[in-house]
Input
Amino acid sequence: MVMKTSEESRPTQREAVAATPWPADIKMQAAGLDFYYGGKQALHSIGLQVPTGRITALIGPSGCGKTTFLRILNRMYETIPQARPEGEVLLDGEDIFSLDVVNLRRRVGMVFQKPNPFPKSIFDNIAYGLRINGMGGKGTMAEAVEKSLRRAALWEEVKDQLHKSAYALSGGQQQRLCIARALAVEPEVLLLDEPCSALDPIATAKIEELLFNLKDICTMVIVTHNMQQAARAADYTGFFLMGRLIEFNKTAVIFKTPARKETEDYITGRFG
Amino acid sequence: MSLRSRWRKFANVVMLSLTGVCALFTVSVLFVILGYLIYYGGKSLNWAFFTQLPAPVGEPGGGMANAIVGSGKLLLLASLIGIPIGLLGGVYLAEFGGRTFSFVVRYTTDLLNGVPSIVMGIFAYTIIVIPMKHFSAFAGGMALGVMMIPIAVRTTEESLRAVPGVLREGALALGASKWKTVLTVVVPAAMRGIVTGIMLTLARVAGETAPLLFTALGNRFWSPGWNQPIASLPVMIYEYALSAYDDWHRQAWAAGLVLLAFVLVANIGARFVVARGISFRRA
Output
């Protein structure tokens, strides 16, 4: 049903996109995006551009739709029956709803709220994505695993115990393992759904530093309840409220001189 | 102390002792059976019991080697039928089933579980023994295999449902298809529960007698291949216990002991499997 509506309503837009080259500084773009859980509308006409190689934070009170929006970007909403988007989301100018979903998720990775390593060894956790996507032959697998663990700043801590269970790691290490697992398949975009909400401040600081260093290799979108985290880590910030994107701008602007009263009330803690 | 509070204390003591006595009764039944089996069965249990064929009536000695091997072969056949169907059926119910069809399958499975084992025997007799015109190991294994299916399906389903959804999402988000997610993440994570369930249903059908009476029948000799009547421990116990010879009675006790030992080992083994290995549950 989703595919059908996208094919019916989009050709003209897609032709227009094809005519002009897609700007390299925009990685993903949502336009006029509505989202429904059954009959209940969760998102109203979201329009947002995710800048390439930057960290974009989405903030807002619980239930405002920021996680819902994040889960549209890699089509994870499809696991929920009767969930249905309407509107347009582009990745490098391509309509994500007409991409092969397996391919889309390889290009747009995701890290979840609670660390969710597989009940396998550390090595197998990282190698999993490579194996299912047919990447990395026998010789290069160990190399690829090391590279991902280094990128996630976990290599030094686990290099001697790669064949131990991933559950032997601490919560913060598990979350970095999940980031390494997502990075292993070389995604262009990394979605992070409150990745630090289950972690202590030290583990959180490590992850923020790590994200900062990842900007060279991928574009990131992070949902967070922690406003200091958005202010510290993000280049751009979007404020969601009741299923609408109220304001989107450079982080400094959102936190210092927000244009909308709702944004100011939220970031100063006057509600929500 | 008022009369009322005395009465309440009295009722409390009575109910507490009653539940305690019933709990004790449950435990003692198992130990009485075990004690009987060890006392009577242990006496006639010797090396010959495991290595020799049954002796002709009147002759002392002999064993049940053919019945032990026969039970093993029947369980192997039953596993070949029951485990794949139970496993895949459980995976379907837990991971792929829609609402209506799953409900029908689940309900049917529960009903199948309630079918008396003798009826299972008649079923196998009708569809295999009658067309083939003779009793066979194959017919017995088939009857036992069908009996394994319901428990295998439901324990597999429940084990898979206990796997946290975030693990599925983790695999899907890496670009795994639904099927690959189930095969490479969900089933391995649930493996311990699945193995436990299968061991328990194996232990259960190992002791079934009724479905074998007119399918595998029984055999006093070795039964090569899968196409002839075959001996099994439960049927052997049935025959020997009903006989008129003291010698046979003793051997029936010994067979009972061996069978119970197998069931207990399978149960304890299942517990052991549960207690170790990488689990998805956080410590």
